[in-house]
Design goal:
By secondary structure, this protein is of the alpha/beta class. The protein is built from 17 helices and 13 strands. A seven-stranded parallel sheet has the order 3-2-1-4-5-6-7, with helices on both faces. Helix 9 packs parallel to helix 10 and helix 9 crosses helix 14. It starts with a strand and ends with a helix.
Length: about 375
Amino acid sequence: MIIGFDGKRAEHNASGLGNYSRDVIKHLATFHPENSYTLYSPKPGTLFEFKHPSLSRKYPTTVVNRLASSLWRRKGIVHDLRKDQIELYHGLSNELPSGISAFGGKSIVTIHDLIFEHFPEYYSAIDRKIYKEKTQSALKEADVLIAISEQTKRDLVDIYGAEKNKIRVVYQSCHAAFQKKVKPETVEQIRLGYQLPKQYFLQVGTLEPRKNALTSLRALALLDKEHLVFIGKKTDHLKELEAEIERLKLGQRVHFLENVPVSFLPALYAGATASLYPSYFEGFGIPIIESLFSGTPVITNKEGCFAEGGGKHALYVDVKDAEALSEAMKQMLNAEVPTALMTGADAHLSQFTDRTTTEELMKVYSDAMNAH
């Protein structure tokens, strides 16, 4: 197959959509080098240094397209896809070029989430309008829709009326660093390096209201002496969190870490009593499987997509209820509970490995190419 990708996020986005794009392209090239892969991006970026004989990169070539690179990505790229004889084009981040059907091949789009529909208050009116229009256009243009969870599939059907038989659920993996066992001495070394206590709970994710760190703090206040470590990008929401820490007199029991190397994260997960993921809503929830791959069970939301990642290896609570969250944290302090929760986790996690997710994606590609 001759496959093209929207490469903008892979080359320029350091967060979730960029990680997904890079992983998809890298794993396909690694496990299926028999195909030809072309990454299309408005301009060269610095975040995707992966090289492979089956992978090439294309950028706007004419002066006009280089000057109007965003317009090229939205529409002009279709001419290049046709010229390059691309057989299948995959929009990796919720959108497809306008008029994509004109290139003559099959088109696939990955829809990650519809958070802007569930929590419009977190987005500006113009952003909501743009996201809605891009999603609706992609649903109309695509031959196949990939949802990253059953939750996202339900949303596409319920909110936009998408055809169920046009949607395929393909889970995503997490960084390869989490899929290797961490040595106990490494866990201890990194814990000491960050000056963390021997026992702590861990919450990973951008410090924004939707991630619900406020409830985590209120749950921590109901415990005697336990510590909570937050790892994630700091936003203006940090001021509200700091005010709550002061109000609750949590003092030195809360730790904020930022810009932690991915290579250190598995050890920080492995050293935690449990990880917290009390987000109100997600498309999937990568930190859940990161934690489980690291051998640490999770406390997360009983609603939405979260059980898809957590399976039987998490405690599920009403994340708006600080007492319920605190009670689950108390349960995790009994060493037998985490041990019991992690029993059989390898079988559950097998559906999220690099190989499994890549083979699921290749099946979608093959089915799309064979469809009439």
